[in-house]
Amino acid sequence: MTNIEQVLYTGKTHTTGGRDGASQSDDGQLDIKLSPPGSARLGTNPEQLFAAGWSACFIGAMGIAAGKLKIRLPAETAVNAEVDLGTTDGDYFLQARLKVSLPGIEPDVAKALVDEAHRTCPYSKATRGNIHVELSIA
């Protein structure tokens, strides 16, 4: 485990009701209803939130990697993240797929950017060795 030497930001939320509840950030920027995956009720779920956070962070990590290679990410850069909630032997687990789109970037350069982002993205680090993750480049 790595101890953080300098905290750059702390996201703070208050959640009530679990998957049938609500969550708000301390700064008021996030105020959402929560609902179980697949339900018809209004609200998002933790898997969608995790996918959104990871994909946004991953694009940021690719931007840093691109800067080191002295190239610019295309404006259309995108990550389609899929986070599965499932069970094995009665226990709950996650698995994920990140599908990266880097239009106009040569395949070998795109692979280098994705590999470096997966190495450095904090979400990728947090999940490494804990859940099955598939990366692909569209």
Question: What percentage of amino acids are in beta strands?
Answer: 25-35%
The largest sheet, given as strand count, sense and whether it forms a barrel, is:
3 strands, antiparallel
Overall pLDDT metric = 97
Measured as a percent range, the helix fraction is 25-40%
C-alpha end-to-end distance: 33 Å
Q: Can you count the helices?
A: 3
- The ordered string of helix (H) and strand (E) elements is EEEHEEHHE
Low-confidence stretches: none
Tell me, what is the CATH class of the largest domain? Answer: Alpha Beta
Number of strands: 6
CATH superfamily of the largest domain: K homology (KH) domain
Domain count, please report it: 2
Features of the shown structure:
single chain, 138 residues, N-terminal domain of TfIIb, GMP Synthetase, Chain A, domain 3, three-stranded antiparallel beta sheet, three-stranded mixed beta sheet
Description:
The protein has 138 residues and is α+β, with helices and mostly antiparallel strands. It folds into two domains: 1-44, N-terminal domain of TfIIb (Single Sheet), CATH 2.20.25; 46-137, GMP Synthetase, Chain A, domain 3, CATH 3.30.300. It is 31% helix and 28% strand. A three-stranded antiparallel sheet has the order 1-2-3, with no helix packed on it. Strands 4-5-6 form a three-stranded mixed sheet, covered by helices on one side. Helix 1 (46-68) crosses helix 2 (107-120).
Helix and strand arrangement:
Elements: E1 13-16, E2 22-25, E3 31-33, H1 46-68, E4 78-88, E5 91-101, H2 107-120, H3 122-127, E6 132-137
Parallel strand pairs: 5-6
Antiparallel strand pairs: 1-2, 2-3, 4-5
